[in-house]
Amino acid sequence: MRKYKAIIFLFFITVPFGLNIQAEESTNDWPREIKIEKARIVIYQPQIENFTGDILESRAAIAVILKGTEEPVFGAAWFVNRVSTDLDTRMVTLEELKVTNVKFPEASEENINKLIKILETEMPKWTIELSLDRLLTSLDEEKASIAEANALNNDPPEIIFSTRPSILVLIDGDPIFKEMEGLSQYQYVVNTPFFIVKDVKNKTFFLFGDRKWYATKNIKEGWKITSKVPKELDQIAQKSEEDKKKEMSPEELKEYEAEEPLEAVIFVRTSPAELIQSDGEPEFGPIEGTQLLYMTNSENDVLMDISSQQYFILISGRWYTSKSMKKNDWKYVLPDKLSVDFSKIPTDSDMGTILPNVAGTPEAQEALLENTIPQTATVDRKTATVEVEYDGKPKFKDIEGTKMAYAENTDKSVLKIENKYYCVDDGIWFEASNPEGPWKVSIEVPDEVQEIPPESPVYNVKYVYVYDYTPEVVYVGYTPGYMGSYVYHGCVVYGTGYYYRPWYSYYYYPRPVTYGFGVHYNPYTGWGFSFGISYGWMSVSFGRPHYGWWGPAGYHHGYRHGYRHGYHHGYKRGYRAGYYAGNRNRPTTYNRNLYNNRSSGVAKTRPKYNNSPSNRIAVDNRKRVSPDTKVPKRNDVYTDKSGNVYKKSNDGWQKYDKGTWNKSDRPTKDKTKPASPSTREIPGRPSTGQAGKATKPATKPAPRPQTRPSTQPSARPAPNNTQNNLNKSHQSRQRGTQRTQSYKSMQSRPSGGARSTGGRRR
Where a domain ends, among 684, 706, 728? Predict the structure, then answer.
C-alpha cells in the first residue's frame, strides 16, 4: 500500500513538466517508456476495443518504476482519444487522450481518484504514434463492423486479350475534336488522357506514346509507328515529355531514360474496356498446394482452375471467368463464391498478391478493415475555402430517387439540397447559399447524402465526414470510398462499375472510371494502375487536366504511381518483375493524402511535436525501455478486459499477481463483480471546445464517448475464454509487427525485383 501511495505522490509532483509520448516513424517499437523526475512509466502497445469515426477506444498494460527501486508495479488503463491518420506514411497518431478507467491492485479509492485527476491533466499532452498495420490487426481481433456498398455494377467490360506488347487507348465516348490554338490545321481529341491529334488537311491521326509516334487513317484501328510527323506536333509532344521528366525523381528519371521504347499494338476503345496481355502465347505454371495454374508470362492476374477448366481474371478487384481467353464471354464471379483453392494460394507465391481479393482470407479481412480507416485533417474555419468554376451558368441534374441534385457543368462535386448548396473538395465539406459561393467550411453533413445511389457520379461524397468542431477548427476525414475503393461481398473493389456520362460544352469534365487502366490492389500501397500506363503514354501538360478520370485523386497521382514501368520490367526481365516494381512504396489513388493538395486552410494532417522545455519529458525511442528496468522488454505484455495483466512466455501465459509473475496456462475466468477501489470508472464530462449543435457524420458513427465505453471492467463480466482472447491478441500483435516490417521492406526493395516464389515458371 505504501508503494501505491508513493506512486500517486510522484504523479502529483510531476504535473508541471508534462509528458509527450513522441514516436519516431523509423522505429515505432513497443513498449514505450516515459521518464519523469522520480519515476518511469512503461506503456505496452494499446489493445483496440472500438474505432468509430475518428475516435478510438483502447486499453493498455502499464508499469510504474519508482526512482531508487527495482521492482515495477503493473496495472491497466483505458483510453479514449481522437485519431489523426497519415496514409502516406501509414502512421496513426493518438491525440487528446482521455483516461476513462485505471486499475492498480490494492490502491485505495482516494488514491485512485488522485491518479485519475493526474492522468486527466497529463494525457491530453501526450502524443502516441502507432503504425497503421498494428492498428489494422488489432481491429481484426475485435471483428470490427464493416459496411458494404450496395448495388454496384459488376457487368464485365469488353476484355481484350493480346499476346504482344499492347496499349489500350480509351476515349470517353465518341471522339470530341477541338482546334489547336494557333494551329488551325490540327485538332486534338479532348475526351481522352492520351495525346491524339487529327491532321485535318491530310486526314491522318497521330498518337504520341512512350517516346514514339503512331499514325493511322482510322482513329479506331490501323495504328503504326511513323517518323513522318509534323514538326509543330513533335515540338508540343517533346515539351510535354520534358514536363513529365521534371516531375520524376533522379532515380525514376535515370530508370526511364535507360529503358528502350517498345513498339506496341494500339487498341482504341470508346466504351469501357480492359486489356489482358501475355508475352507471347500463354504459359502456365502450378500454384503449390492447389488445383490452380497461373499465367507466368503476364503481368495480369490470370488463373486456370484445372478442375473446372475455367479461366479466371482479376480486374479492378472483380473476378471474371470464361472457358476461353479469346471469346470475350466473361461472367462475373462473387469473391465469396470462388473455389476453396483460391484461399489456399501461398502468401509468398507470385499469386499471393491476389489474396486480398479472395473473401475470407486474412489478407481480405485486413483490406476490408483498411477501407474503414479515415485520412483525417484539422481544418481552419477562417482560412479554408473553395472556388467553384462552371462551364457557363450552374446547371443541376436531379439525383434519381432523391430530392437532391448535382452540378453537371463543373469539375467539383456540388450538391443542391433543399435551398442550400454543398461542395466537397479534397475531402472537405463546404456550404453556401448560392451555387457560386462564397463558400465556408461545413460543420455537419446533411443526412440526405446517404441516399445517393452508386449510379450517380457524386456517390463518393458519402465517404467524406465531419467528426467534430470548435469555434476555430473542424475535424474532418474521408475513407477510401471517396477515392473509389468499396467493400463488396467480403473484399474491396475499385470503382462502382457504372459508366458516368461526362460533361462537354466549352470545357470537358470527365467522371471517374472503373475499367481501362488495369487497377490492382496492393496491401501496402493501395490501388495502383497497370504496367501499360507508364510515364510515356499519358499527356500531362497538353490541354486541360484529365484528373476526373480517377476521381479526387487527381491526374498526376493516378496512373503514374501504379505499376511503374512494369511494361518494360515485365517483358525485359520476365515473370512478374514489373508487378513488383510497380508495387513499391509510392502514394497511389487509394492512400494518397489529399489534404496535402491545399496550400491553405488545413491546420494539420498530422501532429507537429512540441519539443519546448515544458514538454522535455519524452519517450526514449532509441532505447525504448531502459536496460536497467525490470519490466519485460519485449512487446509481450497484455491486459484482459477486466484489467488483469498477463505476459506471454515461451512456456505459456503468466499472470501478474501480488507483485510477481505466476504461471497461468489456464487464466482464471473473470467474474462479474462490483466496482472496487482498484478499478474505477471516470465520470462523464462535457466535450472540450464543442460549439453549437452536435455534428452529424455522414455515416452517423456513434456519438463521441464521454464516459467509459461499454467494455467497463467493473460493470460487466469479462469473457470466459480469457486465454483464447489473449492468444488472439498475441497473434494479432505478431501479425501487425510482421506487416509493419513488410511495409518497411517494400520501401527499400530495389525496383524491378520479382521475389523468388513457389509459383514461378520453369
Answer: 684
Residue 322 C-alpha cell reads as 470464361
Question: Residue 216: is it exposed, middle or buried by C-beta count within 10 angstroms (0-12/13-18/19+)?
Answer: middle
For the chain, first and last CA: distance in Å? 70
Would you state the pLDDT for residue 422?
98
Indicate the pairing of strand 645-649 with strand 652-657: antiparallel
Q: How does pLDDT run across 269-278, given as a tens digit for each residue?
A: 999 999 999 9
State the greatest distance between any 2 C-alpha atoms of the chain, in Å, as a whole number: 97
Parallel, antiparallel, or unpaired for β 602-604 and 375-380? antiparallel
Query: Please, is 438 exposed, middle or buried when counting C-beta atoms within 10 Å of its C-beta (0-12, 13-18, 19+)?
Result: exposed
Q: Is residue 184 part of a domain?
A: no
Q: What is the CA radius of gyration of the chain?
A: 28
Taking phi over 0 as left and psi of -120 to 50 as alpha, with beta for the rest, 280 belongs to left
Give the alpha-carbon dihedral of 361, 363, 365, 367, to 10 degrees. -150
Query: CB 566: neighbour CB atoms within 10 A?
Result: 28
* DSSP 8-state secondary structure symbol assigned to residue 108: -
- The whole domain housing 461 covers 375-478
- Residue 148 pLDDT class (50, 70, 90 cuts): confident
Nine cell digits for residue 632: 519485460
Residue 49 CB neighbour total at 10 angstroms: 19
pLDDT, tens only, 533-580:
444 676 644 555 456 787 776 544 333 333 333 333 333 333 344 344
Surface-to-core class of residue 6, CB atoms within 10 Å of its CB (0-12 exposed, 13-18 middle, 19+ buried): middle
Cell numbers of 91, please?
502512421
- Interacting residues of 439 by C-beta distance below 8 A, sequence separation 6+: 385, 386, 387, 388, 423, 430, 431, 432
Count of domains for the chain: 2
Pairing of the two strands 265-269 and 166-170? parallel
State the average pLDDT over residues 267-295. 95
How far apart are the C-alpha atoms of 86 and 96, rounded to whole Å? 17
Within a domain: residue 127? Answer: yes
546 inside domain: no
Residue 465 and residue 459: Cα distance in Å, rounded?
Answer: 14
Please say whether the dihedral angle defined by the alpha carbons of residues 92, 96, 99 and 104, taken in this order, is positive or negative. Answer: positive
For residues 638 and 648, give the distance between their C-alpha atoms in angstroms, rounded to a whole number: 8
746 burial class (0-12, 13-18, 19+ CB within 10 angstroms)? middle
What single-letter amino acid sits at 193?
A: P
Work out the pLDDT band at 117, boundaries 50, 70, 90.
low
User: Would you state the pLDDT for residue 340?
Assistant: 96
Return the DSSP state at 460: G
Where a domain ends, among 668, 684, 700? 684
Structural domain contains residue 531: no
Give the whole-angstrom CA distance, residue 84 versus residue 95.
Answer: 7
